């Protein structure tokens, strides 16, 4: 039953290989009666390796219409539970108790509910899942909280919680306040010897808009500008700054906020000076990823030589480089513009990477490269997602896309350097290698999770590889 349902979930990370075995690692009853609520950790074996996923299982004798699309299956007496099983994240009646448990710091079996020091938690709100495109499931409680249920579990404290707590202590004001979290005590579930973070309750940024939406609005405005006549029209209409909805001032502020968070991360976790020779290992890792992705996605292969050449340049770097804790999966969907400035979200790192890799110190320009890639994505998303663009118009729009990306990349880098981050212009080879590495990651990510988006990173790669 669960094995059929799991691969259809947006947050399931193993869509590219069959499930060999699925068993319930831990099951904790959180609510008896009608509806019932059970917390499950699923042990899922694929390609010989076992991953752990979290599910809140609701059980009702009769399933109301509004919950039917979230049904997992019918439980019979054999399991000791009878009724319709469904994903309880979609049932407000079953999400409300999570707040009450965090407020009270309940301990139920291996589940420990925590409240952040010095905060109170309201218990009168129902949670409904966010419709945002994401790798986990976030519940929004009124206009007060956002509770992120981590779907794929990793040993120990989740980096998102770890970093948010550390940045709070460092006095960083570019993150949402942490109110509480839920953890699973170490036990026989195979996820390790430390408590495993299951959920993070943060302040809900109610008046904020995410960077991706803001950037797309700006691109839309720019594309809507009438083109001057003539075959080279788009080349002459190359000033997105003159169009309504220009994003450059925001991009610059975002660059500054990024540098400030990097400074706070360095304070909180320290800086390691790394000899440039260490970059050989870094380049080797980049090449390994390239080989694996080129094997799986043939469209990447023609660009492989240019990408390898960029990685080789990194190996030639001399001197010492500052490595530190970074965001790790930085893009426009991970930042929100509030009334007062930019807030950074989701310090979990790239979902496909191993936990140790996500925590490993890196050069801060890796995040800068991530955001630069995101400008490229935003610039080309509308072209790739509109199947009706005529070929001639598509070429002109590609030129406009380039102009928009260029303007906002430059503004972001200027803001980052002015606020004290390592100057991107002074590390062009390193930055280019990080951008290629991220593009390769994105191609695998899209091929696995959103194949219809694959043209977006491929188009921008054509431009980057020149
Ligand atoms: N504290 C918050 N307040 C309001 N919206 C948020 C908050 N945190 C995240 N979001 C929204 O939810 C989206 C997904 O959040 P994120 O933490 O990146 O989840 P995931 O790790 O599952 O991708 C973000 O792009 C943003 O739009
Ligand atoms: O789920 P996460 O936010 O942790 O990150 C994963 O999903 C992202 C998409 O939701 C993906 O980002 C890519 O698409 C974005 C547009 O949706 C774009 O702004 C990014 O630049 C691009 O990398 C991210 O790579 C992935 O790890």
Automatic annotation (TrEMBL):
Domain Aminoglycoside phosphotransferase: 245-376
Pathway where this protein functions: Glycan biosynthesis; glycogen biosynthesis
Alphabetized UniProt keyword annotations: ATP-binding, Carbohydrate metabolism, Glycogen biosynthesis, Glycogen metabolism, Kinase, Nucleotide-binding, Transferase
Presence of keyword Kinase: yes
Residue ranges constituting the Maltokinase N-terminal cap domain according to the UniProt record: 5-91
Reaction it catalyzes: D-maltose + ATP = alpha-maltose 1-phosphate + ADP + H(+)
UniProt cross-references to InterPro entries, sorted A to Z: Aminoglycoside_PTrfase (IPR002575), Kinase-like_dom_sf (IPR011009), Mak_N_cap (IPR040999)
Enzyme Commission code: 2.7.1.175
Keyword ATP-binding part of the UniProt annotation: yes
Family: Belongs to the aminoglycoside phosphotransferase family.
Quaternary data: Monomer.
The protein's name: Maltokinase
Species of origin: Actinomadura nitritigenes
Lineage of producing organism: Bacteria, Bacillati, Actinomycetota, Actinomycetes, Streptosporangiales
């Amino acid at each position: 039953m669960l094995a059929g349902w799991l691969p259809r979930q947006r947050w399931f990370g193993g869509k590219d290989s069959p499930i060999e075995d699925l068993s319930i690692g831990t099951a904790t009853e959180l609510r008896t009666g009608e509806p019932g609520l059970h917390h499950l950790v699923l042990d899922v074996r694929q390609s010989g390796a076992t991953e752990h996923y979290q599910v809140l299982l609701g059980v009702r004798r009769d399933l109301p219409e509004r919950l039917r699309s979230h049904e997992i299956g019918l439980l019979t007496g054999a399991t000791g539970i009878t009724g319709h099983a469904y994903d309880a994240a979609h049932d407000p009646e079953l999400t409300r108790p999570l707040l009450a448990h965090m407020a009270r710091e309940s301990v139920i079996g291996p589940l420990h509910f925590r409240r952040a020091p010095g905060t109170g938690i309201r218990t009168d709100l129902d949670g409904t899942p966010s419709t945002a495109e994401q790798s986990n499931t976030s519940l929004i409680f009124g206009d007060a909280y956002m509770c992120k249920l981590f779907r794929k579990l990793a040993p120990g404290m989740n980096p998102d919680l770890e970093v948010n707590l550390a940045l709070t202590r460092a006095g960083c004001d570019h993150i949402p306040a942490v109110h509480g979290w839920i953890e699973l005590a170490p036990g026989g579930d195979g996820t390790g010897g430390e408590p495993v973070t299951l959920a993070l309750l943060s302040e809900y940024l109610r008046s904020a808009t995410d960077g991706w939406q803001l950037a797309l609005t700006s691109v839309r405005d720019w594309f809507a500008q009438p083109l001057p006549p003539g075959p080279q029209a788009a080349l002459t209409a190359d000033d997105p700054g003159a169009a309504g909805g220009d994003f450059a001032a925001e991009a610059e502020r975002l660059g500054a906020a990024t540098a400030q968070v990097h400074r706070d991360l360095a304070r909180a976790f320290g800086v390691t000076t790394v000899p440039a020779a260490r970059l050989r290992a870094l380049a080797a890792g980049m090449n390994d990823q390239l080989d694996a992705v080129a094997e799986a996605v043939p469209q990447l292969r023609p660009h492989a030589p240019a990408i390898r050449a960029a990685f080789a340049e990194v190996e030639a770097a001399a001197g010492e480089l500052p490595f530190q804790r970074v965001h790790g999966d930085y893009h426009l969907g991970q930042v929100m513009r509030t009334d007062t400035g930019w807030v950074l979200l989701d310090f979990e790192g790239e979902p496909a990477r191993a936990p140790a890799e996500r925590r490993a110190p890196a050069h801060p320009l890796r995040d800068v490269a991530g955001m630069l890639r995101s400008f490229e994505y935003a610039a080309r998303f509308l072209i790739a997602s509109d199947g009706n663009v005529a070929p001639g118009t598509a070429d002109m729009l590609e030129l406009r896309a380039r102009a928009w990306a260029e303007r906002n990349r430059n503004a972001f880098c200027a803001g980052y350097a002015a606020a004290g981050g390592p100057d991107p212009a002074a590390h062009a080879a390193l930055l280019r290698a990080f951008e290629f590495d991220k593009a390769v990651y994105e191609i695998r990510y899209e091929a696995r999770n959103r194949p219809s988006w694959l043209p977006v990173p491929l188009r921008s790669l054509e431009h980057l590889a020149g």
